[in-house]
Structures are given as C-alpha cells and as structure tokens.
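[job 4417] fold queue: 2 targets
>>> target A
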Amino acid sequence: MTFFKKKSLGQNFLKDEKIVDLIIKIANINSKNEVIEVGPGNGVLTKKIIEKKPKRFIAIEKDERLVKILNTKFGKNIEIINEDMMKISYEDYMKENLIIFGNLPYNISTQILAKWIKLKNLDKFCEKLILMFQKEVAERIIAESNTKNYGRLAILSNWKMEIDKIIDIDPYSFSPPPKVKSSLLVFTPKKKFYKLKDPKNLEHITNIFFSNKRKMIKKPLKFLFQNFEEVSKKLFLDLNSRPQNLNKLTYYKICKLYEDSIN
C-alpha cells in the first residue's frame, strides 16, 4: 500500500538509522522511564524506544492512517493517542523520569515548544526533551544576545531549559526530504531558574521589545513602566541599547519588575 504524506501535517519521516541510534544513545532509556513520542510517523524511532523497555510509552499521532500502521506494528507495546499534539493536556501525563521525543512539524514547532516550557513543575517530572527542529529555528532557540538570531524564542526557551545542540541533519535523512536542514536539540529542565508568576508575562514583554528590535529600549520600557527611568537605573540599563543587546537574565528581571508593578 502506498502511503502519501500529508503536507498539512508537515510529515517528513526520519529514516536514517544512524540518527535514530544517536537519539536512543542520548536518551539513555531504562525501565524507570516514562516516554512520550509526539509525531511518531511510521515508527522508525518508536521501534528502537520499545526495545529499551520503558515503564510506559505513549505516542501522540494526529493522522488516523498512521495510527492504524503503528497499532499493527507495535500492538500493546505502546499507548497511542489519536490527537493533535497542540491540544493535549500534557499535565495529565507528567510522571517522574519522563522523556519526551519529537520530530516536530516545522509549522508548529515553536508553539509546541512554548507549550512544554510553560508547563508547571516540568523540572520535577521531566528528565529531558529530545527534539528535532528546522535548522533555522534551532539557531534562534540557542542564540545568544548581540547576534542576529537572538530574540523572543531564545529568551523563552532558555528560561527553564539547558539546551544542547547535538547535530545538524541533512534532508536525505527524511522521507520525503524537506527543503532545509534540521537540527537535533536536547532540552534539560533546570532545577533552578528565575521565578516568574506567569510565563505569559515574559512572552508579553519580549513581544513589546522585539516588535521593533532596531529601536532603542527606552520606548518599550516607557510603554511597560511609568517609572521606566527608575527601572533602567535599577537594572543598569543603557536606554540607547537595542533589544538584542540585553541578555536573557535581564529580560527575566524586567519581567519580574513588570509583574510586581501590575499586582
């Protein structure tokens, strides 16, 4: 039977066994691990995960055709949830020693990452997230201040996560091959991170700063704070700086002051 991939679901299935083996090695799965795989596709990685015999294995797959294939291949070895990965309440599956795998569709990769980062108590349950992104997106995730790729995504991603880039992956490692390279990233939840009341506030202030990142920071500070000059002195900010000049910790501190000002 010929299986036609759905462009609407961003389906590019990993087929490179060397990359699959690398992912499994990084994961270091044992019998205590709970596993979630989002977008398992035709099950190339799924098969290798099952061989490691995790305590529980949940696969989230939206495409009903793939669900049938996965059920045929793996039967009772996995629990399959036929649902959109963006609509899942992941809090319901937060168990100790959790590992999340994902070859993420390019069109929603940043949204699903943000959804995971904003989960409460992620650090108490999740060991790591091993995720595949379009290379361009990965570069934005790991970007440092004063670089062209630095922005909202890097600030949010690094708030509660230690992030390691493992490898860039060529298009021919997938079927069908995408038009761009991919990158494999490993996210490890931080045990200690800057405490904020609501991550939506961090998204709000970074949106204001980076909506026009060529402008000096005086304008967004003035928009956020009536006492913006006092805030700038407290954080030793140069009002002539641009948004990309402020490091991540500075944005977390700005967010904390903003939260204090609205409560």
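>>> target B
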Amino acid sequence: MKCKRIAALLLVASMVLAAAGCGADNPSKVVAKVGETEITKGQWDGYTALACYAQGYDLSQLEETKELQPYLEYLRNSMLSSLVSATIIEQDCAAKGVDVLGDTYEEDAKEFVENANKEIEQFLTDNKLSDEDLERFYKSQQYLVYLMNETTVSVVDAMEYYENNQQRFTAAEDMVRASHILVSDEALARSIIDKLDNGDSFASLAEEYGTDGTKSVGGDLGPFVYGDMVEDFSAAAFALRVDEYTKEPVKSDFGYHVILCTDQLKSGSVQPYEWVEDTIMTEMQNQSYYDQLDQLRQEYDVEYFVDGMDEVIEDEGNTGGESGEAADGETGGAEE
C-alpha cells in the first residue's frame, strides 16, 4: 500500500546521506496531461522536491541504490498523481465557477515565495528550484486542501463502521493509554509529583510544565503497546494501575517523565471507540477524498506518459484497507 511504501522510503531517507539528483531527463518532457494542460518533467521534479521537503525530507540527499529505486519511483509517481489531482480540481472549480484562491491569493503567494527564498535558500539552490516552482506548489496545495475540506465524515458513519468492523480493532497485545509530563530537570519532575500528591490536576500541570507537543492535550499520549516506547518508559507505564501515576521520575533520552495511566486493555479485547475514532475518521475522510478524485478523473481527460502510475492510482483508491493497523496496536501518538 502507498503509505507503507512511502514510510519505508522515508525511513531509509533519514539514514542515507549521499547526494543524488532526480534524473537527467529533459525537464520540458511532457509526463502527464489533464485535458489540454501539460505537466512537464521539470514541473514534476520541482513539485516532488518541495512536497517531500515540506514533510521534512530532502530527496536530493538520497543515494538511489538498486534497493531504494522502486520506493523512489513509487514516491515520485505518487507526487505526480498529487500534482495531476490539483490540476483536475483547479479545472473543475473553474468549470463550476468556484473561487478557491480568493481575493488575496496573489499577495499570499508572493509572501510564500519571499519567505521560502529567505528560509530555505540553500535547499532551493541545491535543487535548482525557481519562484515559479514555489508558486506552483503553493497553488496546488490550495486546491488539494479545498477538496479535503469539502470532504466530511459524520460521527454516526464512523461509529457504524466501528460497530461493523470490531475484528479490525481487536488488540493483538496488551495496551495502555497514558499521559505524561516531560521536563528536562529531575528536581522539577519531583516537584510535579509533589503537586500531584497534593491533589493538583495532572492535565493542568502538563499544560503548565510539559515541554513536548502533548502539553496542549493534558499530556495524553494515546494508547500504545509495550514496544512503542523506550524500555524504561514502557516498563513504568505498564506497571501502573488505572489512574495511578509514577512516584519517581522516569528518565529517558528525552528527559524526565511523570506518567499517569489512564486506561488499560488486555490482548484480544476490542479497543474502545474513543481510542480509534481519530483513525477511523481520518481513514474514512481519506477514502472519501480519493473517491471524489476518482470520480473527477473519470470526468476529465487524464493521460500519463510514465510507467508505474496504475499502481499508484489503484492504491489511492484503496486507502481504507489499512485501518486494520489499529488492531495491531499501532495507534501512533507517542514520540518515544
């Protein structure tokens, strides 16, 4: 599936440091058409570089080995699909008289380009990216976000899906849901434990003292299995009873944690709806989004002139097949 392959690629990307370009093909070569609108190899390369960089990965730093090549090809093809999708949405909005960009678009796009040239100048230089590439990327995102925002999923539908697919949310391992307060100083962690002993709210203390992204949600890490966290953190969390917190700070490479167990689940039990609601809603929204794109692809004349696109399009149409990951305990939400 698409997301698994890209995840594997990005894992490799984080470990490979030798430079490589996107290929020596003629940048003016047409790689796709939407109606009469042509998309060139140069436009595709520029979009791919920027889209991946926006997710924290610089493809120019990859060594394209024989083992990595299929992943890179798949990733680049999925980026071409994204660029084509944005073009389709743009044409459809124009045909229907829908103004997606708004009155301030030119000013907003100019500001985006100017900021990019200041903040990622070296990246733009290394990848030979122009202001035109930047504006094309910015514009495409407006259309893709527009369609995603137009895609809604009701809680009723999500709950119905949950009820009809209980087997997909059965925990394969024991699970714990926990919150934590991460600080850099052991003395502060002990002070927080003292405050908890005196009846202070864990969520309030997390918001006040926490140093990671969970502070805004009361320190909630979501549900996880033992192996999702570093050993010391997992050992402490799984040793707690529900509503019990650690009486000693738990040290990790990230700092010092005060951990609160908020729920537990035994292997073979169905995860509560609230544990998997976000996963279901996201999955259903993505499926609906790609269903709409598929419908638009049928309404507009789309041609690809590169190999491997059928696989990408097929995977995009089957995004719903991955929700079973939640049944394995891979719910995400933890940084450790």
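[job 4417] complete. Note on B: The longest strand covers residues 255-265.
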